[in-house]
Write a structure and sequence with these properties.
With 427 residues, this protein is α/β, with parallel strands linked by helices. The protein has 17 helices and eleven strands. It comes from Funneliformis caledonium.
Length: 427
C-alpha cells in the first residue's frame, strides 16, 4: 500500500519534491541571516566603492524618486486600484527640462514616431483643460521580474528614454505590475498569503494594463495614449489589446521593444527540459508565492562586482546572452535595479506558452486532464492599434517570424544589430 499523494507521483516528481524541500530549508536559513546586520556588514565591510556619480549614486538609489531627482526631473506617484482589488503604484514625469537645442536622440525619437505613422502633432489634443493644453501621453511598461526603475538605469542622461520623451513634450507615465516592489498590496490579501500571488499574464492583461490606462486617461483628460512596452510589457499589451476592442481605441500607437509572445525556450537544454515539464514540478520546486526571493539576499550580502558577475553568468547559462553591448559599469548599475518580485504562477504561464508554442491564456487543467481540451489563444490578429516592432538581431528570446505571423501587419519593424534581449540602446 503506497503513501497517499506520494504514491501518485512519478520519479521526476519525487526528485523535484526532495530538491524542493532541501531548497526551502536552505532558503529559510539564508533568509534568517538577512535580519542580522552583523552578517551583512561582515560580507560588505571590505568593499569600498571608488566610483564617481552617476554610477555610484544611481546604483544605490533606493527608489524611483531618488533616481529621477538625481537628473533634475520632477516626478509624481499615483495609486491605481484594479477591478480585482490590487493596489498598483505608478509613476509620472509630467514635464521635461528646458534645452537650448534639440538633441539628436530626441530628434530620432520624433522621427521613429513619424515612421510609425503617428507624429507628435497628430496625437496632440487641441482642446484645453483648466486653461492648459493637454500634452500627448505615453505609458512605459517594464518586463518580467522588473519595475519602473529599469527605464532610468542608463548612465548617460541622453539615453534615458523617459527623460527624452518628457523633453520632447510628452506626459510620461511608467507602470508597475502587481507583485513588484511598487505594487505589493491588495485590499484583502497580504503578500505573505498564497492567494495574493494567484496571478499570471492573464491578470496583467485583464486588469493591470487596462485599469492603469483608464486611470491615466481620466487623470490627464487625454483621449488616448502611446504605449511602449519591453519584453513581458509587450506580451501583456498584445494580450490586452487582443481581447478588448475598447482598449484599442484608447491606445493610438503600441511600440514593442524586444517583443515576447512565444519565446523559443532556454539555451541550456537541461533547464529548458525542466521548464517544459509539468507545472506541478515547477510549483514543487519554487512554491506558489513569489519567485526567486533569495535574489534580494544575495544582492545585499555579495560584493557588488561578484553579484554583477553572478547575474552575468546566470544569463549566459540560461539564455546564451554574452552582454557585449553593455559595459561592466552599466551592468553593475542596471542589475541592481533589474529584479523585482513576481508570482511563480506567471513563470509557469510562460513555461506553458513555451511548451505549447502558442501565445495562450493560463491553462488551469493539469496535463493528464488536457486531452480534448484546447486552451484559449490570445487572438492577436484582431488588434486594431498601430504597432511598431523593435527587436535585437541577437535576441534568443524573440522569434520574429512567428511573432509577425501572429499580428496584423505592423506599421514599422526594425532589427537592431547586434543587440540581445537586454541592452542600453534606446531606439
Amino acid at each position: 500500500m503506497g503513501f497517499p499523494i506520494l504514491g501518485r507521483l512519478n520519479f521526476r516528481d519525487h526528485l523535484a519534491l526532495v530538491i524542493g524541500v532541501f531548497a526551502l530549508l536552505l532558503e529559510g536559513l539564508l533568509q534568517s541571516l538577512t535580519t542580522c546586520d552583523f552578517v551583512i556588514r561582515l560580507f560588505s565591510m571590505r568593499y569600498q566603492d571608488t566610483r564617481t556619480p552617476p554610477a555610484k549614486v544611481i546604483q544605490y538609489s533606493k527608489n524611483f524618486q531618488e533616481m529621477v531627482e538625481y537628473w533634475g526631473y520632477t516626478m509624481e506617484e499615483h495609486i491605481v486600484k484594479t477591478q480585482d482589488n490590487y493596489i498598483l503604484g505608478i509613476h509620472r514625469i509630467p514635464t521635461g527640462k528646458p534645452h537650448d537645442n534639440e538633441t539628436s536622440t530626441e530628434s530620432n525619437i520624433k522621427s521613429i514616431f513619424n515612421d510609425c505613422g503617428i507624429s507628435l502633432s497628430t496625437i496632440r489634443t487641441n482642446y484645453s483643460r483648466s486653461s492648459k493644453e493637454i500634452k500627448p501621453v505615453v505609458l512605459l511598461y517594464h518586463g518580467l521580474m522588473m519595475c519602473s526603475e529599469v527605464w532610468i538605469c542608463n548612465l548617460e542622461e541622453e539615453r534615458q528614454l523617459p527623460f527624452l520623451l518628457a523633453d520632447a513634450g510628452y506626459d510620461v507615465w511608467l507602470g508597475n505590475a502587481r507583485g513588484n516592489k511598487y505594487s505589493m498590496k491588495h485590499v484583502k490579501y497580504k503578500p505573505s498569503e498564497s492567494r495574493f500571488w494567484e496571478f499570471s499574464i492573464d491578470e496583467f492583461a485583464l486588469y493591470d494594463l487596462p485599469d492603469t490606462i483608464d486611470y491615466i486617461l481620466e487623470t490627464t483628460g487625454a483621449p488616448s495614449l502611446t504605449y511602449i512596452g519591453f519584453s513581458q510589457g509587450t506580451a501583456q499589451s498584445f494580450a490586452a489589446l487582443s481581447i478588448s476592442p475598447k482598449l484599442n481605441k484608447k491606445v493610438n500607437l503600441f511600440i514593442s521593444l524586444a517583443p515576447a509572445t512565444n519565446p523559443k525556450g532556454l539555451q541550456n537544454p537541461i533547464v529548458d527540459a525542466f521548464i517544459k515539464a509539468s507545472p506541478n514540478i515547477v510549483y514543487l520546486f519554487f512554491g506558489r508565492k513569489a519567485f526567486l526571493t533569495m535574489t534580494m539576499f544575495w544582492q545585499r550580502v555579495l560584493y557588488p562586482p561578484i553579484f554583477t558577475e553572478l547575474l552575468d553568468k546566470s544569463m549566459k547559462f540560461l539564455f546564451g546572452w554574452k552582454g557585449m553591448n553593455m559595459t561592466k559599469e552599466q551592468k553593475a548599475v542596471s542589475y541592481y535595479h533589474l529584479y523585482s518580485f513576481t508570482s511563480v504562477k506567471s513563470l509557469v504561464h510562460w513555461f506553458q506558452i513555451i511548451r505549447a508554442s502558442n501565445f495562450q491564456m493560463y491553462d488551469e487543467l493539469p496535463p493528464y486532464l488536457s486531452m480534448g481540451h484546447s486552451c484559449h489563444n490570445f487572438p492577436t490578429k484582431q488588434i486594431k492599434t498601430p504597432i511598431g516592432v523593435f527587436y535585437g538581431g541577437s535576441d534568443s528570446l524573440v522569434d520574429i517570424g512567428f511573432l509577425l505571423k501572429q499580428l496584423p501587419e505592423p506599421v514599422f519593424v526594425k532589427e537592431v544589430q547586434p543587440y540581445e534581449h537586454l541592452g542600453k540602446k534606446i531606439l
